[in-house]
Amino acid sequence: MSNEEEKLEQTEAVETQEETVEETASEEVAEEAHEEFEDAAREKGERKQRSRRKKIETTEEKPVSEWQERVVQIRRVTKVVKGGKKLSFRAVVIVGNQKGQVGVGCAKASEVIVAIQKAIADGRKNLINVPIFKTTIPHPITGESGAGAVMLRPAAQGTGIIAGGAVRSVLELAGIENILSKSLGSKSPLNAANATLDALQKLAPFTDVAKKRGLTMAELLN
User: Fold this and answer.
1) Residue 203 maps to a domain
2) Are 141 and 131 in contact (CB under 8 A)?
3) For the whole model, what pTM was predicted?
């Protein structure tokens, strides 16, 4: 065998060794990449499980509030100031727990969300207690606010709430189920809500009337 043939065989052997080394190195790199990918996927799954557990815990821990808010009106109002006009939003919100407590809030702000939040806070400050007698009111009453007036009448079981607009929202959140109403005068939602609140505030429970007259409840109700 000549020297040239030996050199060719040596070069071929070196090339085959290099190819095998490259193949093993590529296999090792692929295995490492696969392991890294599996680790990343495992960590991602664990993170998702932790976030789900946290969501479940937070939803379970949060107490459900008995108070309900209902937006009656949102208006854009302007105020003339030095140098032009200042635009803002006015929100009228009814707040109640459907258990005899209700309030009306009105507030202004440069943004709608802020105005609603301020109106809710104002409504909770001005809560009144409503005397409810067998899912209706004890006696007929009329409330006034500005140029608006609302007339309320007791109703029999199954009548429902015969009212609309802001008057209906106030009566529903107060917890009254059967009542007749008629809005008189101004059609403004704020006037109607305040007139309804005025009427509910004037209601006198049967127990107070019986004490004033020196009668028992059975005698008063005949």
Assistant:
1) yes
2) no
3) 0.67
